[in-house]
Amino acid sequence: MLGKRQPIPKVPTKIAGLDEILEGGLPRGRTTVVSGGPGSGKTVLGLEFLCRGAMAGEPGVFVTFEERAEAIRLNASAMGWDLATLEKAGKIAIIEARLPGEEIVSGDFDIQGLLAIVDGHVKRVGARQIVMDALDVLLRIYDDLKDERNELSRLHDWLTDQELTSVLSVKTHHDDNQGSQYEFLDFMADCVIRLDHRVLGQVATRRLRVIKYRGSGFGTNEYPYVFGERGIVLFPLTTAELTHQPLGTKVSTGLKGLDLMLEGGFRRASCVLISGNSGTGKTTLASTFARAACHRGERVLYLNFEESKEAMISGMLSPGIDLRPSLDDKTLLIQTAMPESTGSDNHLNRVMETIASFKPDHLILDAVSACVRMGSKQAAFDFMMRLVSVVKERGVTSILTNQISSGIVNDDEELSGIGFSSVVDAVVQLRFVETDEEMIRQMLVVKSRGSAHSNRRQRYVITDRGIEFPDTPRSPPGRAEKVCRKDGGK
Amino acid sequence: MSKPPSAKPRARKAQRGHYLLRLFMAGNGSNSQKALANLRSLCQEHLEGRYTIETVDVVQDFEAAVRDNILVTPALILVAPLPRVVVLGNLSDVPTVLAALRVSDGDA
Fold first, then answer.
1. Candidates 3.40.30.10, 3.40.50.300, 3.30.428.10, 3.40.50.970; correct CATH number of A242-481?
2. Tens of pLDDT, residues A49-68
3. Which residue of B has its CA nearest to A66?
4. Cα dihedral B69, B73, B78, B84 sign
5. In chain A, which residues fall in CATH 3.40.50.300?
6. Helix ranges (DSSP H) in A318-372
7. What is the pLDDT of residues A67-103, one digit of tens each?
């Protein structure tokens, strides 16, 4: 039929982020192949799809060719899915289809036995979806490629006849990144997903890529994923630009002087970068903002990748910023982590889980420069881009501090450190200036999207009462000169 | 995986030297029919008077296939004498089957 392409029916996987990449889910009543190396998460992906389906009332069958049923149940319960209960309720059947491995072969055979077993279970639970995990193990009994293909065709035809939404997982080897040994399987399936587990800069990262999807569009990038507390979490950036909230109303920075320079403060849901050399007071400025926001009853999540919570709290007492009351009334949450403790994807997932439970109004990340220690500049960039995109979608203000190497100022790339200045809405630069008698500190608003701002370098000091401006900062020039874009910037 | 109850009452009653063979078939599939024919002629030739063949149609009785963990058909299980042996395929390769069942030509 010519004309408009009909959207094919899909089944949502309900796996965080995957349905966006698959533009709705897996093809209903059709076969999807998931391939990847050992430890890439094929089993968990299949299991999550099945469990989430069953919990939503879609019964399913899980056929395991490799692991024991008990291991599968343990896997599931580690993710918080109660497989045993779903089995008892008749929502899921697990079939342990493990070949004993000691068969003697004489003449031709086929997988009718397996299909009969599967058919019995499918009918019993009324399954609409099925996962066959580690199909490669079953295929090992075939010496002949032609026999293997015949059996795969038989399996595929049967699954299609039963109108089962199927996920077939196969193990591929590392040096074989195209998974060519199962070329035929890829050809046969309607949707092919590749999972990749690799080590970059000593940090393990996982990537998912959709190779093909008959009759449907899909996100074509490689998407990082992690195993979260509740299953697989993917971080697609496919829709991020479209769903960003417009920049919100002004929110005080906690410093009257800086509010004047910014004509009211930072904008909600914007991304603010505070950059400066070591010792210029970036953490002090960020903490000033945090304390003021918490006093207003707003919630602040402070991510510190540089020092411990205790060190930070006591360090801020010296410029007179007491964060303890805000911690006590739970408006402030300080989360610390060593950047090198795990990969950027795991860091991101941990932060996402905290954002989901704590629901902050503002997020402070101290410091961008430390994120490079998560593995590489690219890893840090991925982490920052995804974090900023997600918080923007939620209308959360993000304040990022960045330590710049001495001697470099005004270089926008260096300011943002890892080259993501396009997502930064406002930049406050702190620096030391040497005069004949002393080192003085100066603060400059380099940019403030969708808002006027002062262009003056403003001298400031850090006392035991916090950051102070000896001279009253000037507000931005008159309205005639003001640059104000309704769209909130480029 | 629990050990399938390979020894049914009938198997236990089996006399010494008696062969109990369980053949899993899939309906009228050609390989299954071939396997049954091959098994019958093989038994007549080499085990006359001391064998029993049980056939199981997995399409009719998938639970039986679950019990004996039979994924491919045809599949022959030597239930007795122990140890248990599984032979996959239509049993066309007679020497392989005889060796698997521990039957030498001299037994005939």
1. 3.40.50.300
2. 999 999 999 999 999 988 88
3. B1
4. negative
5. 10-238, 242-481
6. 324-328, 344-358, 368-371
7. 888 999 988 888 888 899 999 999 999 998 877 667 7
Q: Do B34 and A117 touch (CB under 8 A)?
A: no
Residues of A in contact with B65 (CB under 8 A): 113, 116-117
pLDDT tens-digit profile of A106-128? 878 888 888 888 998 999 999 99
Domain A10-238 indexed as CATH 3.40.50.2000: no
pLDDT digits (tens, 9 = 90+) for A271-295: 999 988 888 999 999 999 999 999 9
Closest residue of chain B to A123, computed from CA coordinates: B62
Which residues in A have their CB inside 8 Å of a CB on B? 68-69, 95-100, 102-117, 119-121, 138, 141
The highest-level CATH class for domain B21-89 is: alpha beta
Under an 8 A CB cutoff, do B93 and A104 touch? no
Q: What is the DSSP string of A178-234?
A: T-GGGHHHHHH-SEEEEEEEEEETTEEEEEEEEEEETTS----SEEEEEEETTEEEE
